[in-house]
Specification:
Layout: E1 6-9, E2 14-16, E3 19-21, E4 27-31, E5 54-58, H1 61-72, E6 76-81, E7 87-94, E8 103-110, H2 116-130, E9 134-143, E10 153-156, E11 158-161, E12 165-168, E13 171-174, E14 177-180, H3 183-196, E15 200-201, E16 209-212, E17 215-217, H4 228-236, E18 242-244, H5 247-257, E19 266-275, H6 286-305
Parallel strand pairs: 5-8, 5-9, 9-19, 10-16, 11-17, 17-18
Antiparallel strand pairs: 1-4, 2-3, 4-6, 6-7, 7-8, 9-18, 10-19, 11-14, 12-13, 15-16
Helix pairs in contact: 1-6, 2-5, 3-6
């Protein structure tokens, strides 16, 4: 395939084969597709353009790379930079559903830092630039349940934020908060597992599966089987499969935006298992977990955006 390598810089908005660069001073690099004409009627902001179907948030570079590689197989790709230096990757693809003759659009960006606060800020950036209907966190997590094995992928429809607490002379009283996906996302995930089986044996990664269940989310990176957070999560819900450090912040940011003109309406978390959240925790399986998570997310897209 020829790579025309287009770059466009300047004021106003530019439309290139379905990918839109938003904001004054935005620059776009288009990958692997022929150049298209400039839009005859540039938009002034993301709010003036139709909402994008999904915004994807990653945290680690290995997660970003895995998502970009997977979505590059899914649709055409353009890279846009805002004036603040944030990078957004735009993917577009014509819908394959017979009853829906439209273009599906997905924007991907990496959070500035790990953690709940940064994840929430990234949701705000996606809202400002693309107003996605759905925000999905895709990446890696540590398992705290025997059903979630190394290389498996957890589709989390429920996130338990375990950090809220009260400190008293008699000890710490934890006040966990549960975030649950919308009914629409629940139906989409149900449809996905109905079509593929549950758990779904991953065809590209023999021995690994996609399954669904709740996850725990906090600020601490857990690397101790005796950690109080693990004990608390087991008591809160014995079916919690994994732990990570951004899901609660993302879910809270989406919830807080509901009702706004550019608000995301739903969220989902897709996490590949990279370790057992124990003393053996290391980076050696990050790529496996990230790539499996990206593949499952890509497979979910027709159900989430149909």
């Amino acid at each position: 395939m020829s790579n025309y390598g287009i770059e466009n810089s300047g004021g106003g908005n530019v439309t290139i084969n379905g990918a839109v660069a938003m904001g004054t001073g935005t620059s776009v690099t288009q990958h692997g597709v022929a150049p298209a004409a400039e839009s005859a009627a540039p938009q002034d902001s993301a709010r003036a353009a139709p909402a994008w179907d999904a915004g994807v948030v990653t945290v680690l570079s290995v997660e970003t790379g895995a998502v970009l590689d997977e979505l590059s197989k899914w649709g055409s790709h353009a890279e846009a930079r805002t004036r603040q230096g944030a990078v957004f990757h735009e993917f577009t693809r014509a819908s394959t559903r017979e009853q829906s003759a439209r273009t599906v659009r997905v924007a991907v960006t990496q959070s500035l830092l790990p953690g709940q606060h940064s994840a929430g800020g990234t949701v705000e950036e996606l809202r400002r630039e693309y107003a996605p209907r759905l925000v999905v966190l895709v990446g890696i997590a540590g398992s705290i349940h025997p059903d979630a094995l190394l290389g498996d992928v957890v589709v989390a429809q429920e996130v338990i934020h375990y950090e809220p607490r009260k400190v008293t002379p008699d000890g710490v009283l934890r006040r966990g908060r549960t975030h649950t996906v919308t009914a629409g996302v629940q139906h989409a995930v149900n449809g996905f597992f109905t079509a593929h089986g549950e758990p779904w044996p991953l065809p590209r990664s023999p021995g690994h599966r996609a399954l669904r269940g709740p996850i725990g989310s906090g600020e601490a990176v857990l690397a101790d089987v005796r950690a109080d957070e693990r004990r608390y999560l087991r008591e809160y819900n014995e079916k919690i499969l994994a732990v990570e450090t951004e899901g609660a912040g993302l879910a809270t940011a989406v919830h807080a935006s509901l009702g706004g003109a550019d608000a995301a309406q739903a969220w989902l978390v897709v996490r590949g298992i990279s370790d057992a959240a124990d003393s053996d925790k290391n980076d050696s399986h990050h790529e496996l977990a990230a790539r499996n998570a990206a593949f499952v997310f890509s497979s979910l897209l027709p159900h989430l955006t149909g």
